[in-house]
Amino acid sequence: MFGPRKSIETAGSHGAGHRLAKTLSWPHLIALGVGAIVGTGIYTLTGVGAERAGPAVILAFAIAGAVCACAALAYAEMATMVPAAGSAYTFSYVAMGEGVAWVIGWSLVLEYSLACSTVAVGWSGYLVGWLQAAGVELPQALLVGPHAGGVINLPAVIVALSIMGLLIAGTRESATLNIILVIIKLVALSIFVLFALPAFQGENLQPFMPYGFASTEIMGEKRGVMAAAAIVFFAFYGFDAVATSAEEAKQPGRDLTIGIIGSMAVCTLIYMLVAISAIGAMPFTALANSPEPLALVLRTLDHPLAAHLIALAAVIALPSVILVMMYGQSRIFFVMARDGLLPRRLAAVSSRTGAPTVITLLTGVVVAAVAGFFRLDEIAELANAGTLVAFVAVAASMMILRRTAPNAARLFRCPQAYVVGTAAILGCLYLFISLPGSTIVRFLIWNLLGLAVYLAYGRRRSALRHAEPSPAAQ
């Protein structure tokens, strides 16, 4: 019913010219994971979450983290079982068939491309705040999109195109730079906790849950802990970008397990410390919707130099998130093209760097265009919708393959697979329906468009469906 399925054995087998180079080890993968996870979510969405849940945004972070932890365990098993590029798209192709795989791949376009754009917009906010603190004023028309009365968010466009150029230069070079940027981010967040935590005041947590737990409509907007969890969920995902690098890992079994689980563990600890420090240091109403909440906290506490350094660290290091997400998107497009569902010429890789140059160029242009013209919160919510659907697919794929391929080699086995998989699915579905109704409608429209593309192009040109001589068979 869902179309042909790939076999586990051939999913990672591809011919010359369509094979990614194995250049990454586990330190690169942990840095990729942390680089993707620690970014706009904690640097900028803390304020958005505070507006929706009040001090209970701390609880929202915990709930989103728990759901992501279940999904991360499923990803770790699938990535080491099917060590091929494509992440949730490839896993769905193996477990459920081509039709489901297309829907997941099309949804992942929202996750990675819009995540890149979200971070680019967040980066622009920190850059502008940092420049203004230094006494530099730029034309407002070039700092925000049409929604805020401007023309284009030029800094967001520039950073997206710059990262695109870096990825075209090569995967290993990009991953090595990413390690440096991750270190800068972690040092900056440590400085924030060091200055903000001593200013913790219990009264700032009262009332702890002003809008309740469930997601409810208040003054035209969804409020409550689950409404906040549905948006700050964006702050946690990124570990799945590690799974997209499976084909480029030197020792997939060891490297992917350490990369996925390790990056989630490090980031969960960091997030809880930062969230408690920020909300405890000042009233949540002052943080609500601030484009640079962490720097705002430090300025309010009369630490202007530390605030300046935090903003500078965000300016320097947030591009690492764009790098990882754009990397992930280019690999999803690459694999879909390699399977014939998109034009195959997009799957060509550079003979010099082993990276897919054409698809990376296309991805960078799309990301820059979205970042230049749309709002941060709307982009993040739509990205979350795509991610939640992908997480559901990976958890389902893990449980399906436990039944249909019980004897297949699993270098990492998820503990209590059916319990963890079910928890991931139910948690993601609850977060999905907690998103604003307009976001859900946009997501459905996007996938209806995707199905039209699949029926008009991909289904007729699928290498697997029509048993054509595909790169995997050559």
TrEMBL record:
One GO cellular component, as annotated: membrane
Subcellular locations according to the entry: Membrane
Record bears the keyword Membrane: yes
GO terms, molecular function: amino acid transmembrane transporter activity
Pfam families named among the record's database cross-references: AA_permease_2 (PF13520)
Transmembrane segments: 26-45, 57-76, 88-105, 112-131, 151-170, 177-200, 225-244, 256-285, 305-328, 354-376, 382-401, 413-433, 439-457
Keywords noted in UniProt: Membrane, Transmembrane, Transmembrane helix, Transport
Membrane topology summary: Multi-pass membrane protein
InterPro entries membership: AA/rel_permease1
Top-level taxon of origin: Bacteria
Name assigned to this protein: Amino acid permease
Source organism of this protein record: Allosphingosinicella deserti
